[in-house]
Amino acid sequence: QVQFVESGGGSVQPGGSLRLSCTALGGITYYRLAWYRQAPGKQREMVARITEDSTATDYIDSVQGRFTISRDNSKLTMSLQMENLKPEDTAVYYCNTYPTGAYWGQGTRVTVSS
Fold this sequence. Notes:
Layout: E1 4-7, E2 10-12, E3 18-24, E4 33-38, E5 45-50, E6 57-59, E7 67-72, E8 77-82, E9 91-97, E10 108-112
Parallel strand pairs: 2-10
Antiparallel strand pairs: 1-3, 3-8, 4-5, 4-9, 5-6, 7-8, 9-10
């Protein structure tokens, strides 16, 4: 199991940008990774995922074209660049392996509001 520490959240106005980061407390080379989010009153959902070698990425429809996932295995990090943020992107964002491991970090909160 890999544990992660997320950071980079904050409050922005609609149309704004944020870059989320997470650092793994262990090797990630052999894992597919993903960003997940949980909005208030909703179930946690996968937002974007990336293969072990970064050759393929996948996004849910609602963030396609606005979010970009990336990783650096040598630095044990993964990022999520979020552009043109919308109020419906408001959530706590988490990183984890894909499929998910049992451990969830504290996440990082993103609030999009005018």
